[in-house]
Amino acid sequence: MERFFNFSAYGTSFKTEFIGGLTTFLSMCYILVANPLILGQAGMDSGAVFTATALAAIIGTLTMGLFANYPLALAPSLGLNSFFTYSVVIGMGVPWETALAGVLVSGLLFLGITAFKIREKIIDAIPESLKYAIASGIGFFVAFIGLKNSGIIVSSPATFVALGNLHDPSTLLAIFGFIISVILILRGFQGGIFYGMVITTVIGIAVGIIEKPTAIVGSIPSLQPTLGVAISHLNSVLNVEMLVVVFTFLFVSFFDASGTLIAVANQAGIMKNNKIPRVSQALVADASASVVGSLLGTSTVTALIESSAGIAAGARTGFSSLVVAGFFFLALFFSPLLSVITAPVTAPALIIVGAMMASQIQKINWQQLHMAIPAFVTIIMMPLTFSVATGIALGFIIYPIIMLALKKQREIHPIMYGLMIVFIVYFAYIS
C-alpha cells in the first residue's frame, strides 16, 4: 500500500493519510443531507438522492485515489446542485428528469473533451487571476444560498434583498448553528462543520423546532425513483432550450471542477509553475464521476473544496481518498437521520463552505486593474444573478475586451477569444 501510493515521496504515512481522509469525510459528509434536501426541492425523491449521493461519492473518490493518486474527495457540488434546482428546474421550469438527462449529456461531453485533453488546454489558457475568481465566486454564490435558506436574507420589493426576521425560531437556530460551527473550526476541531450540524440538530429537537427522528440506523433507501432516469429522458434533451441547459451544465461544471482542482492542488503543494502533475488522470476521474452520478440520480459530481481540510491535516496521496470512500459506505446505513436535517441545519454549512471557497480571492492580482476588473465581475455577478454560469461568461467576455483596448492582444491565449465568442452567442440567445 505504501509503495503503491508512494508515501515516502510525499513525506506522509499510513496514519497521517487515514487521519487526513477522516478529516475530509467529517468536513464534507453534510452533503449526504444537504444534497437530498436541495434536490428534493426540485421534486426528486430524497431517499433515492441520498443513496445516489453516497454511491457517487464512493465511486468518484475511489477513482480519483486509485487512478490519479490525489487526496481529493468527490461528491455532488453544492453550487451545482443549487444551480440544478434553483436555476434550471425552478427558474426555467425544466422537469427534474429532463434536467438530469442534461447532466448526463454534459457529463459525456465533459468526459470527451477531457479524454482529448481539450479541457487541460483550456485550463492552461485561463489567466491565473480568473481561475481564482471562479473558485471564490462560487463560494460567494453558495454562501448567498445559505443565507437565503436560513432566512437571514430575504427578498425585498424596495431593496431586492434585506435582513430577515431574526425573531423567527428557524432563523435563530441557523444563526446558532453558524456560530457554533465557526467556533469549533477556529478552536481546531476537525470536522467542525459536521459537529456544528449535529449540535444544531440536537438543540433544534430539544426546543421543538425539529421533529425527532423515528430511527437512526435503517436500510439503504431504494435507487429506483432516480436510477437510469437520465437515460430514459435523453430524447427530451433534443431541443434548443435543453441544448442551452446542457451547455450551461457543461461550462459551469467545467470551471467549477477546474477551479476546485487548482485550489486544492495549490494548497497541497502539488501544483508547480501553474501546472498540475497527473492532471489528465485527475480530470478523467472527475469527469467520469459526473457521468456515474447522473446515471445514479444526482446532479454533477466533482472534487469538493472540503478536501482542503484533509490536506491541512496531512493528506497528500490517494490513500486518504480511499479512507473517505470507506466512510461514505458506512454512512449509507444512516438514512433515517435525513428527517432531522432541515434548512436551518444545512444553511450554516453552506455559508462556511462558501467562505472557504471565497478565500481564493486573496490570490487574485488586485494591483493590475486589467486583471482585477474581469475577476471582480466574475465574482460579483455569480450571487447577484444567482447563476455561476453568468458570472463566468461575463468575466470571460470582459477580459479579452479590456486586453484588446490596452493593445495587449498578444498576451491573450487564442482559446480565450473563442470562449468570448461562445459566451456572446450564449447571451444573444438567452436574451
From TrEMBL:
What membrane topology term does the record carry? Multi-pass membrane protein
Subcellular localization is given as: Cell membrane
One annotated GO molecular function:
purine nucleobase transmembrane transporter activity
Q: Which UniProt keywords apply?
A: Cell membrane, Membrane, Transmembrane, Transmembrane helix, Transport
UniProt main location, coarse: membrane
Q: Name one GO cellular component term.
A: plasma membrane
Listed InterPro entries = Azg-like, Azg-like_bact_archaea, NCS2
| Identification of the protein by name | Guanine permease
Q: Lineage of the source organism?
A: Bacteria, Bacillati, Bacillota, Clostridia, Eubacteriales
